[in-house]
């Protein structure tokens, strides 16, 4: 459709994961029954191996082309933010108050359901309304209704905190640099 603006190329890349997983399975099944010496069975690894290599090279070219032309419109991203995104933050808030995660998850779901019933967002629920679901809600609940705080709270490796993202980008840049050095030496 002409009005469509999403990146179809990334969907097609994701779709290729089945082919690559199938190739991996083919090789694993061939290797599964081998005794410890060389066997002619191994000639069956070439087709899936070369197909996977060719597929990955092509996918990387498509991904690079997509990323080179990618335009991120911050204002559109910010406009897409929704208070319903805070449901996980509610669960983690309750965990920090001493509630087991499975119970906190259930209460967070009840918070979302209450907001839907009241025809408001989770951030518009009053403390009194929240306390009907759990006595663990306190005045400080309002501190979690901030998108920046929500992102920054995930400090573990791979988390969304700005410092983690910077470290991950630096590690990726180093990996790319090392890979380029290795490939030019070959």
UniProtKB/TrEMBL annotation:
Keywords: Lyase. One of its GO terms (cellular component) is cytosol. Residues 85-152 form the Argininosuccinate lyase C-terminal domain. It holds the Pfam family ASL_C2. GO terms for molecular function: argininosuccinate lyase activity. GO terms for biological process: L-arginine biosynthetic process via ornithine. InterPro entries: Arg_succ_lyase_C, Argininosuccinate_lyase, L-Aspartase-like. Belongs to the lyase 1 family. Argininosuccinate lyase subfamily. This is Argininosuccinate lyase. It comes from Araneus ventricosus.
């Amino acid at each position: 459709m002409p009005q469509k603006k999403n990146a179809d190329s990334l969907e097609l890349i994701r779709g290729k994961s089945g082919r690559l997983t199938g190739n991996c399975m083919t090789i694993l099944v061939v290797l599964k029954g081998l005794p410890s010496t060389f066997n002619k069975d191994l000639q069956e690894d070439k087709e899936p191996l070369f197909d996977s290599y060719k597929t990955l090279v092509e996918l990387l070219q498509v991904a690079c082309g997509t990323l080179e032309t990618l335009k991120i419109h911050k204002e559109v991203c910010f406009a897409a933010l929704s208070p319903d995104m805070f449901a996980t933050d509610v669960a983690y808030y309750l965990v920090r108050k001493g509630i087991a995660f499975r119970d906190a998850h259930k209460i967070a779901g009840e918070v979302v359901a209450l907001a839907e019933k009241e025809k408001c967002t989770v951030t518009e629920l009053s403390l009194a309304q929240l306390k009907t679901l759990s006595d663990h809600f306190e005045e400080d609940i309002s501190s979690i209704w901030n998108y920046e705080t929500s992102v920054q709270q995930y400090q573990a490796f791979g988390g969304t905190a700005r410092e983690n993202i910077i470290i991950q980008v630096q590690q990726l840049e180093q990996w790319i640099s090392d890979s380029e050095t290795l490939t030019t030496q070959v």
